[in-house]
From TrEMBL:
<protein>
    <recommendedName>
        <fullName>Lipoprotein LprD</fullName>
    </recommendedName>
</protein>
<feature type="region of interest" description="Disordered">
    <location>
        <begin position="58"/>
        <end position="91"/>
    </location>
</feature>
Length: 122
């Protein structure tokens, strides 16, 4: 942790010196202010891990049931059971016509495949 924090502070000093040079820009200034925050995070994370080692958080017992609250998930859409409403074919004449067209294509395709010969093509 000390090496990581010291490295971050060294990088902050380096970026500050780049900002003060003639080729420095505001990007270097931003990095110079960002690296100390990284050093602070290293220190914070170290002490947080030490605290977890001293008093680890309570684990759920393996046989405990965990439940998702009912209001968390969206409700599933309900559909009426088959035959409990208007017949789909009667509801839309365009759909009925399209289904008839598809059935006709399927019959024509079946006739085509039975007439073809399988072999060498001679």
């Amino acid at each position: 942790m000390i090496a990581a924090a010291a490295g971050c502070l060294a990088l902050a000093w380096w970026q500050w010196s780049r900002y003060e040079s003639t080729t420095g820009s505001f990007q270097n200034l931003g990095y110079a202010m960002q690296w100390p925050l990284f050093a602070g995070f290293c220190v914070y994370a170290y002490f947080k891990f030490v605290r977890y080692e001293e008093a680890p958080p309570e684990l759920h017992p393996p046989d405990a049931v965990t439940e998702i609250p009912a209001e968390l998930l969206p409700q599933r859409p309900t559909t009426p059971p088959p035959g409990a409403g208007v017949d789909d074919d009667d509801a839309d004449p365009a759909l009925r016509e399209y289904n008839a067209y598809l059935a006709e294509l399927a019959r024509a395709d079946d006739k085509d495949t039975t007439q073809q010969t399988r072999g060498t093509g001679t």
